[in-house]
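Aim 2, interim progress: modelling of the adenosine monophosphate-bound target.
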Amino acid sequence: MKLVTIVCEKLAREAVTRLLRDVGAHGWTLWEVEGSGAQGSRTGDIPEFTNIQVEVIVPPAVAEMLLTRLEKEFFKRYAMVAYESDISVIRREKF
Amino acid sequence: MKLVTIVCEKLAREAVTRLLRDVGAHGWTLWEVEGSGAQGSRTGDIPEFTNIQVEVIVPPAVAEMLLTRLEKEFFKRYAMVAYESDISVIRREKF
Amino acid sequence: MKLVTIVCEKLAREAVTRLLRDVGAHGWTLWEVEGSGAQGSRTGDIPEFTNIQVEVIVPPAVAEMLLTRLEKEFFKRYAMVAYESDISVIRREKF
Amino acid sequence: MNADLLQAIQANLLSPALLFFVLGVVATLVKSDLKFPEPLYITLTIYLLTAIGLKGGAALSEAGLAKVWLPTLAGIALGVVIPLWTYAALRFIGRLPAVDAAAICAHYGSVSAVTFIAATNFLKQIGQPFEDYATAFLAVMESPAIIVGVMLGKLALRREGDAAPLGGVIKGALHEALFGRSVVLLVGALAVGILSGKKGLEATAGFFVSPFQGVLALFLLEMGMVAAKRFADLKRVGPFLLVFGIVAPVLNGIAGVLIGQAVGLSLGGATLFGTLAASASYIAAPAAIRLSLPEANPTFYLTAALGITFPFNITLGLPLYFAVARWAFGASTP
Amino acid sequence: MNADLLQAIQANLLSPALLFFVLGVVATLVKSDLKFPEPLYITLTIYLLTAIGLKGGAALSEAGLAKVWLPTLAGIALGVVIPLWTYAALRFIGRLPAVDAAAICAHYGSVSAVTFIAATNFLKQIGQPFEDYATAFLAVMESPAIIVGVMLGKLALRREGDAAPLGGVIKGALHEALFGRSVVLLVGALAVGILSGKKGLEATAGFFVSPFQGVLALFLLEMGMVAAKRFADLKRVGPFLLVFGIVAPVLNGIAGVLIGQAVGLSLGGATLFGTLAASASYIAAPAAIRLSLPEANPTFYLTAALGITFPFNITLGLPLYFAVARWAFGASTP
Amino acid sequence: MNADLLQAIQANLLSPALLFFVLGVVATLVKSDLKFPEPLYITLTIYLLTAIGLKGGAALSEAGLAKVWLPTLAGIALGVVIPLWTYAALRFIGRLPAVDAAAICAHYGSVSAVTFIAATNFLKQIGQPFEDYATAFLAVMESPAIIVGVMLGKLALRREGDAAPLGGVIKGALHEALFGRSVVLLVGALAVGILSGKKGLEATAGFFVSPFQGVLALFLLEMGMVAAKRFADLKRVGPFLLVFGIVAPVLNGIAGVLIGQAVGLSLGGATLFGTLAASASYIAAPAAIRLSLPEANPTFYLTAALGITFPFNITLGLPLYFAVARWAFGASTP
Ligand SMILES: Nc1ncnc2c1ncn2[C@@H]1O[C@H](COP(=O)(O)O)[C@@H](O)[C@H]1O
Ligand SMILES: Nc1ncnc2c1ncn2[C@@H]1O[C@H](COP(=O)(O)O)[C@@H](O)[C@H]1O
Ligand SMILES: Nc1ncnc2c1ncn2[C@@H]1O[C@H](COP(=O)(O)O)[C@@H](O)[C@H]1O
Ligand code: NA
Ligand code: NA
Ligand code: NA
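Predicted structure of the complex, ligand included:
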């Protein structure tokens, strides 16, 4: 299985979770983070300047599709970073 | 070394950390997250509907034991997801 | 690409982010966590007893340098754990 | 009588607290991005419990034990009896699995602090005096039902072949029932109120008394959102639980009012006693049950307690229990 | 007149609220580790919006609709006209990209609740009466400009070849403009205030009224830090936007005062009306724009609204709009 | 005299603030899941510091500088002398490592705002007047000891062969000591209070004054939990530090009272001055020391300051310093 991690501004939350449903993820985990990157530092004190980190467990094919669509549709619009890594889950059938 | 990640409802916290001690983990890291999965969305606004994410660094043998016990004892009872991944730590002797 | 994860006490935050800039990381992501380890449990209720988790995406060479400097300069001073893992990012040129 | 009830309902529904509750429901239904952060929810809970505990304790220190011991015992008895009859109803009429019936009956036997507070608010709104030390009944009624419910559930699991040692689980449930955060805050603040007395309350009244009703209104805004999020689960729990979520509090509420009168409480006090009997816990019980009876399905008990009974009680239930009390006390129209 | 203005400026700058704002700016500039956690920021926002809504609603329920409909319509009209003229200025004088101009004009056409609250605070400080129901104008002026701005931006993107269906985006923007958290809280609390009336406000005054000015001071401490963090971006937005961030509110403010007078508001009310016109949204608009016009660069609109216009308005703007109102009303030195 | 002391102790222990502190200790000892979220802790800290700063500043603006400069200088002097003698004691009697002695002495030379606030609360409780501008002494006494302690520590590390450049570290420590969040809030709010004066305080009294004692009570509930969590470390710090954690504040407290009297303070003011000398910092100092002297073991200084001295001071210390002041001023039983 793949774990896809997305770090992006909080205001993109709706758009990101909608995409996750679109590509067929069965669940996700999300929390608020602070960050610093090319688009300045996001200090986490007011909602307009907070990031979220989203982690989603998906099969490799879905991971690929997800990353492709993030690159095409999101990267020029939102402050965002995304990557995937290998994990081994219990209850594979769940994802 | 292995990093075992557990995402589960906050109310399982005591039970999970007890298990970690049981299997011999020397430490853990934990924070609150929101989530969505088979058992509905956990919106993070009141403690009854919040998740926690627990990350624990353990040797491979311990990781295996931990995941087995999670599967046997926890999965039918709690909203939960668990997986392991490979990491390389500094100060291996610590874990 | 490498993902370096650092879990340390919140009071080391300034020192850690300074180090990240020093070794040439282009960004980082950070949030507050609770933890338990060799130096006792950090309960996350007051800033003096909270941890942060820092995640930073860097090329392998930078990751190595970062971990080496953490080991040399930070580990005897601060409650801290650090490890690296392999990830594949989109937009490699960013990091 | 009917006109009285309507008037009481109207007075209740037009209070800021209730209107904010409705606003919370509406905000969720229109999918607003309004959301209370968890630390705010916890802070409001801490505030409401300590404030009511402190006031109740100060009142206790004035009233003395003589007036309080009988209704206190009655409250504990109710906390044992309510889970027993509701368990039977859920199991044999509702045909729910034993462990779910046990979990639900623990919630209905235990009490909801916020419902109690809303009731004091309602009585204040309509100018009906009540015993301020009634908080003590709230405090003693939180735990017994949880322990009864957990024991019923564990016995059922045993019969189904679960060999887990009972002792440890009961100990855990006892600990949670006695030292869970809501019980500790409430009982602790009661003790602080008793020890520091009227003088202590006066010194801190600018924080614990004057802003109280406004804080309650803000909290009910959040509770409206929390309750409305459970509405989606209403179809999942089946028609029996929907009916149960309204009939059980009404029956418990009427019984509570009558018992309250029998043990010597005033009209206002009996209304509060009825409200306690009618209310279903959604802070102490869910935490304790999740820890001690994780086999029970939370959708059932949370939806019933939060999605049905809580909204019913704070909107129509309170005026109803008050009307019952007025009828029982033979009171004439004021 | 000049002396009056100076005196008003001084009264404003020496109020605790303004001084705490300056403290926030200083704390950021000296790189202190002082930081408000996000839940506190959100809590303060919720408090201020519900408190002002409740008060406004109670005032509305006394004043009646007859007095309110004309200025309300005027407010909505301003919310449509301001984004149009500012869009033209940003586009053709400032030569900004169309989508950025659209985003910015939405912020200046919409309103800042905190600036409005600071204005009521200022009027209270100097003893100038005003219409308490003015909150209603704040409520209706939040959304129209956002919708106008999003439509302008989407039309521009179309011309540039973006083929995304307009309908969905406008629907999303409408939803955010009507049900975004600040609008829901403000309109909802207004409704609560109207329904529960003076009695409801009195019951909760210990929370929603007496601590209000102090809470505002604390919030402005945070706003000082937030605004000061934008100062670093001032060089990035270019000289035009710097000038725009001060000239636009002044022009809008003067227009607002005169229109306020024309539709029958008092001296204090016209000052508030001018302040609303002058203020730039930094809660409702950024969220809606980020969702509906993510192509626009947030550095532009956030820096202009938060880093320039907000500090200008609450320090010098308020006394200025008041001076304009005094002049318009031909008032003599008090 | 003895009877007086007992009575004062009782008055202190039966105040809601102290009782809530005890409740926090108990909640931790019985392993309740009660927990304050960090944002609430930070919010309470911000509130207490700004409230006390504002009140102190308003008092200063009335009193004028003439009355304040001498005790202020005395306070700074104490902030330099206390770390010197405690360092010597820790090093040569306690035989602690130099860097740990340096870290601890910084905490005892610096001051605890909450202990100070508890002292004002105590004096109010027993009806003893005091100088409201005493907050100014609190403000100036936070930093000097931290700087002294860091310098002592760095010199020690040098002798042990650490070649790190001293300049940078001292600069960092200075920055933290002068611009750390607690100092900025306190000094900033003092300045706001001075500038906005009595009028500003009155306008915000509904937030910064009337709820103050209640907020303190809630905060002490949290502090009770925080302190009790350190109790587990008591055995780890050794018997010397246990004794030091009580003897040092008593000696410093007596010296503080006498010096306070010598520089012209009233009975109440001298009690506060003694409390400041006796108190050990647990907000400003730990942060600064952790950053500038990370080689020091936090278990030592946090356990001593939070686990021993803080609980001692707010329970028995306050009445003791008051008794000393009464004796010094030759006051008869009231
Ligand atoms: N190298 C990095 N390592 C970890 N997180 C990063 C990195 N670069 C950016 N981020 C995160 O991604 C967010 C958006 O990045 P950016 O679009 O570069 O501003 C930042 O606010 C960080 O939270
Ligand atoms: N596919 C997934 N990816 C990431 N997190 C998940 C996924 N599925 C479930 N989770 C997390 O695990 C929690 C429990 O899952 P569940 O038992 O499926 O409701 C959810 O609330 C999420 O936080
Ligand atoms: N085995 C582990 N797995 C995950 N996190 C750990 C582990 N050990 C320590 N930590 C984290 O690192 C922090 C510092 O560790 P220590 O220096 O061992 O006290 C702890 O508070 C935990 O948050
Ligand atoms: Na009940
Ligand atoms: Na405007
Ligand atoms: Na001291």
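Residues A 25-29, 55-57, 95; B 7, 35-39, 42, 51, 79-81 surround adenosine monophosphate (ligand 2) (CB under 6 Å). Chain D is about 80% helix and 0% strand.
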